[in-house]
Amino acid sequence: MAPAHPTSSDDSSRPRILWLAHDSPVPPVSGGRLRSLSLINGLLQQYDVTVAVLHGDAPPQNAARTGLDFVDLRGRSRRDQIACLPVLVVHAMPPTMRHFAQPRQRAAVKYLLAENAFAAIVADTPYTTGAVPRDSPPLLVNTHNVEREVWTEARAEVTGGRLRLMLDRALVGRWEVGALNAARGVAFCSQRDRDVLLPRLRPDLLSAVVPNAVNTDALQAMPDAEEHSQVLFVGRLSYPPNADAVAFLIDKLAPRLAETGTTVVFVGADGDSGPGYRFAGRVSDLAPFYATSFAVVVPLFSGSGTRLKVLEAMAYGRTVIATTKAVEGLELVAGHDYLPAETADDFVQALSRLQDAGLRQRLTVHARATVEARFSCSTAGAALRRLVEEVTSGNDGLPLDTP
Question: Which residue segments constitute the domains of the chain, with CATH numbers given?
Fold first, then answer.
């Protein structure tokens, strides 16, 4: 797992950032990856970036853009995970940190820091701080959620068993606060997440809201769908709130929509189709599904962070019907940016209202304007660059409370 030397940028005068990736942001097939990739692209406006991937899929072999390099620091062997157990026990780390605090990973990051002049480290999620050695450049943590909230909804089958899940739930909240406090700065994805965590953090900790974002240049608002018989839900079933939403749509909504000839299409998930719904599986291009859908339904009842699927639908010019939880943290205006719904009756009534072409047009125009003004990649990228500049204004790093 020895790291490769990052490729030098064409412009050697640009400072370089080390981005410790929870998972490879390429391909951007999930909300988390989309957030990471949009922020990396924002940094590339001013910095060169080395992305060190600690877990998940392998990074791409070739950099997608000048100034961007990938290094594979994943440690997947059982021996690597066992080797980090003493660190987890001594420092009361949750078991999930076995993927990010392995001695070989920490040694590889230390090697990268010794061989390259990095202006700062961005830890993508608090988990990746486990690979940061002592006496490092200034550290900024990019959060995606309030992690202690995420773990209340995690399921044993995707976390390594009941015992690990129990320990993660018990330890992650205190550990999350400690990881953020060991940084110089924190990027929160919403004001709501900031309000939840900031009271438990150091008073002198630099922080900013760096919102989830969509590429409003690439995602253009589409014309109205030719037919109004298809609605869309996007999301992977491996995320428990998505799985619960799909169950709600199949059990509560699809039977009633089938009576009107309307179908819910699930993109990003596999399954057996039935009356009023069908599964399209994982696809490389979502645009055709948005083009043939006249609305997007987002019946989320749990979860943390903010939902890129909502912003993406708004950018594509599709009316969103969503629960309060689904739009939490986005500060959208019901009836202006989206239609609110909590029950199957609410969703049915909202879809009925959307047969009005004038209402559809007003909602989509307002929603697109909101995304362009507040949730574009340029807006989020600028917010992160400002925070990085604050974080790097001094030279002394803050050592983590780990070996």
Answer: 16-212+378-391 (3.40.50.2000), 230-375 (3.40.50.2000)
